[in-house]
């Protein structure tokens, strides 16, 4: 191309997707492209901090409330009790209401998105989301689907159903899940398909809210935890990444009064930080373990009055930099967190709340890359014993070191940029 290609990145309103896209955007910029971000309400300034131009979506007048970070924090807060349920029980209690809210978001901002795309005239769009916004298809520009959730998002007969937390061999569980999911999601799916038809698009099959791209699909599924598939995804349209870990500012761990022992990092994401009672309960256990615990508590730092000498609380951490220095990463099973742990050779203790956290909790257990525990149904002795075992498991550490070396030899951000720019160069 005779000018730098303009790449519009459109992540969903979550920091996992947002920061994944930042990693790809940085690599695209290093190659001479011009990445810009389409920005949901509540994420203003997130991408500008990394030096990227932002275009802000404006919900239509009278639309359902904009779905920014504050909305989702309130939404999660009302559903905290539901996170103790099994994945199947969460279908009615949490998953169906979440899809309804996501469909509301699409309807509220699609006109604004269409106007922004007409203004930007991007050479390509990277959509890191769980749902299609009709404006993307209507604008006629090449678009890539970025799957920064678990690989289960792309269905296959040998891959467990998305969000189910099932293993690949659980045939009976799969049948029960698919029947329950079909019933729970039918109203939201029917409403979404009606909106697609109104925008001149074909409806999607039962249970699907996002089609694969005919141009490019990027899946953040490292080979060490990838599933065997009944139908191989065509290599000319599907590019698997060895995760997609961004560089972040260096982290210099501050000295603690009890400044000895391995570093353990814990983060349940910006939304999981809402559960301050649960985090306090965990901190009480951390106080009894000879290690240093760095805990991301999001915007709730003032909720913690007494902090043990071996614990440091922060409202934000440069996560990849912290994980790189950690001996253990305790997290909620978000795909970025799981990939960052693997990239740096760190075992995961996954305590899933919802969504694809259940899938990654199962995968970490099945692949021997860490352990999973129920997020709240544990005893202090049980949590202490699990952390101690993970910190002392040298065989696990050796396996993860080999996985880390493989991922670092083939960085996902590089492969993603190669895939996007090579396709643009062929136009």
Automatic annotation (TrEMBL):
One of its GO terms (molecular function) is UDP-glycosyltransferase activity. Gene3D superfamilies: Glycogen Phosphorylase B (3.40.50.2000). The keyword Ribonucleoprotein does not apply. Keywords: Glycosyltransferase, Transferase. It comes from the Bacteria. Residues 302-412 form the Erythromycin biosynthesis protein CIII-like C-terminal domain. It holds the Pfam family EryCIII-like_C. The keyword Signal does not apply. This is MGT family glycosyltransferase. It comes from Ancylobacter tetraedralis.
């Amino acid at each position: 191309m005779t000018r730098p290609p303009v790449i519009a990145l459109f992540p969903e309103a979550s920091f996992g997707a947002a920061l994944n896209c930042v990693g790809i955007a940085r690599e695209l910029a290093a190659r001479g492209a011009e990445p810009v971000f389409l920005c949901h309400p509540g994420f203003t300034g997130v991408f500008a901090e990394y030096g990227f131009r932002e275009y802000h979506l404006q919900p239509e007048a009278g639309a359902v409330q904009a779905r920014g970070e504050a909305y989702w924090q309130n939404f999660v807060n009302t559903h905290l009790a539901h996170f103790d349920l099994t994945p199947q029980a969460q279908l009615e209690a949490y998953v169906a209401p979440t899809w309804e809210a996501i469909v509301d978001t699409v309807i509220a901002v699609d006109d604004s998105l269409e106007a922004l795309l007409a203004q930007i005239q991007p050479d390509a769009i990277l959509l890191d989301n769980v749902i299609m916004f009709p404006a993307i298809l209507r604008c006629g520009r090449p678009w890539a689907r970025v799957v920064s959730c678990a690989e289960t998002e792309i269905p296959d007969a040998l891959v467990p159903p998305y969000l189910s937390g099932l293993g690949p061999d659980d045939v009976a569980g799969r049948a029960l899940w698919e029947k329950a999911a079909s019933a729970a999601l039918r109203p939201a799916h029917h409403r979404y398909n009606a909106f697609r038809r109104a925008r001149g698009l074909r409806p999607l099959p039962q249970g699907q809210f996002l089609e694969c791209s005919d141009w490019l699909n990027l899946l953040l599924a490292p080979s060490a935890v990838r599933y065997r598939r009944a139908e191989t995804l065509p290599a000319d349209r599907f590019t698997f990444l060895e995760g997609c870990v961004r560089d972040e500012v260096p982290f210099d761990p501050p000295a603690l009064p009890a400044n000895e022992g391995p570093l353990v990092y814990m983060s349940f994401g910006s939304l999981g930080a809402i559960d301050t009672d649960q985090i306090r309960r965990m901190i009480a256990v951390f106080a009894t373990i000879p290690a240093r615990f760095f805990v991301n508590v999001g915007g709730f730092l003032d909720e913690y009055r007494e902090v043990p000498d071996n614990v440091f609380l922060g409202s934000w951490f440069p996560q990849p930099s912290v994980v790189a220095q950690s001996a253990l990463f305790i997290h909620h099973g978000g795909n970025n967190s799981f990939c960052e742990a693997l990239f740096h050779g760190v075992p995961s203790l996954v305590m899933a709340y919802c969504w694809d956290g259940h899938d990654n909790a199962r995968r970490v257990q099945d692949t021997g890359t860490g352990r999973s525990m129920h997020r709240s149904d544990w005893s202090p002795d049980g949590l202490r014993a699990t952390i101690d075992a993970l910190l002392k498991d040298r065989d696990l550490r050796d396996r993860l070191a080999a996985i880390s070396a493989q991922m670092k030899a083939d960085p996902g951000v590089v492969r993603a940029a190669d895939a996007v720019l090579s396709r643009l160069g062929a136009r």
